[in-house]
Every structure is written in structure tokens, then in C-alpha cells.
Amino acid sequence: MNSLSYLNPFDDFPDPQHALTEPNGLLAVGGCLAPKQLLQAYYCGIFPWFNDDDPILWWSPDPRAVFTPTLTPASRSLAKFLKKQDWTYTVNSAFEQVIKGCASPRKTQDGTWITNEIEQAYINLHHLGKAHSVEVWHLGELIGGLYGIAVGNVFCGESMFHTQTNASKGAFTALNHWLYNHQFTLIDAQLMNSHLVSLGAKAITRNEFIHHLQQNRNAVMPQSMWQQGEIPLEL
């Protein structure tokens, strides 16, 4: 039965299969953004998404947008473009700058869902070694990046940004290389949209996603892969 649950801080999450069909994937209201509850959410295939004047809303949509890590960029034109750029790619070198970049409103938007509360919650996870960023640099300036949560060998992407054309796609290409080379099995991109389709996302059912997550969320990955450093990008 599909129903909306109301959570107190640190309550266990309901089964994602109980999420509403309209709006797609809304599962629960309330709880808190403390690291313990946030990590439990991702472990169960659930993520927070809400506006500044909303209560905390938790989601598990069906279908789910995902990628399989690969060394091949989304298109030949993107590979050709990235080859021409004098860009440097890094991991976990400017997490707070990246999340602030992602929080900046887009030209087509009046606001952002990445509130100060969300920002601080993921910065806390980063300090615990659970949230990670990929950065794109040009002449020492941060021009793009993305961040997300590692759950076993599944990477749950949260948001990306760019200040130069295709810099967010460059960050995603670098992430793909990094995760592929470290035997990650899936990148979760949450809700499908045209931008994700252009990057090669595919839609799978919530059941398929949860099953894959359950099979891989306890994989022990080397913490050394998240040490601050450069990501080599060979195209």
C-alpha cells in the first residue's frame, strides 16, 4: 500500500516500495539531516529533496536514473571538446566550494533546493569521509564540479555545476573514469531528465535499483581512492 510516513528524528525509514506514485517517489516527511539519518537513507535507496520553506521530504522514485561507470564519454563530440581543454580534474580538493557552486541558482531558476541546511549536512558527511566531490580547474580557477555519497561501490550523485561550457560534463566524465578504475558498479542520478539522457543515463525500476544497492552497499572500498588529488583523464 502506498502511503506517506511521518518521521521523528532518527526514526527508521519505511520500505521504499510504500512511496507515493504522485508525486513520484515521495516516501516520508520529517526526521532530520544528522549524518546517521542521512546515511541510513542512502543505504536504503532514499534521498532528501525539499525547498527552504518545506519540511524535510524523503524520496525514492520509480523509475530511477542510473549510469554504469565507463571510460567512454557520452559522445564523440564531448570527447573531442574535452581533449582541447587545458583543464585539470581533482577529487575532494574543494568540496565546500563545489557544493556552494551547486547551490547557486541557475539562470533559469529563481532559487535553489540546496539550502544552507542541506549544504551543512553534506559538508558534515564530507568531514566524515562519506561525501565526495570532483572538481574541474582552469588556470587555478574552479569552473565546475559535482558531489555525491559513496554507498559501498555505488555512487549516489547529488548535483553538479559549471561556470564554463561543458565543465560539469567534464566533471562527470572524470567521475566515470575514477569510479570505473576503482570497480564501482553504478552511479545513481535519482530522477531522469533531458540533461542526464544526454550524458547516457538509463532508467531502471525502483525494484532493480534497490536490489542492486542491497547487493553492493556493503562492499568495502579503499579509502585511499578519496584522498585529495588529481584525476588523470585520458580520452
UniProtKB/TrEMBL annotation:
| Annotated EC | 2.3.2.6
Keyword terms, alphabetized: Acyltransferase, Cytoplasm, Transferase
Q: Fetch the Gene3D superfamilies from UniProt.
A: Leucyl/phenylalanyl-tRNA-protein transferase, C-terminal domain, Leucyl/phenylalanyl-tRNA-protein transferase, N-terminal domain
Q: What is this enzyme's catalytic activity, as reactions?
A: N-terminal L-lysyl-[protein] + L-leucyl-tRNA(Leu) = N-terminal L-leucyl-L-lysyl-[protein] + tRNA(Leu) + H(+); L-phenylalanyl-tRNA(Phe) + an N-terminal L-alpha-aminoacyl-[protein] = an N-terminal L-phenylalanyl-L-alpha-aminoacyl-[protein] + tRNA(Phe); N-terminal L-arginyl-[protein] + L-leucyl-tRNA(Leu) = N-terminal L-leucyl-L-arginyl-[protein] + tRNA(Leu) + H(+)
- InterPro entries reported for this sequence: Acyl_CoA_acyltransferase, Leu/Phe-tRNA_Trfase, Leu/Phe-tRNA_Trfase_C, Leu/Phe-tRNA_Trfase_N
Main subcellular location: cytoplasm
Localization per Swiss-Prot or TrEMBL: Cytoplasm
Gene Ontology molecular function, alphabetical: leucyl-tRNA--protein transferase activity
Under the heading Pfam families, the entry gives:
Leu_Phe_trans (PF03588)
Cross-referenced HAMAP family: Leu_Phe_trans
Q: What does the record give as the function of this protein?
A: Functions in the N-end rule pathway of protein degradation where it conjugates Leu, Phe and, less efficiently, Met from aminoacyl-tRNAs to the N-termini of proteins containing an N-terminal arginine or lysine.
**What family is this protein classified in?**
Belongs to the L/F-transferase family.
Matching NCBIfam families: aat
Name of the featured protein: Leucyl/phenylalanyl-tRNA--protein transferase
Which species expresses this protein natively? Shewanella intestini
What taxonomic classification does the UniProt entry list for its organism?
Bacteria, Pseudomonadati, Pseudomonadota, Gammaproteobacteria, Alteromonadales
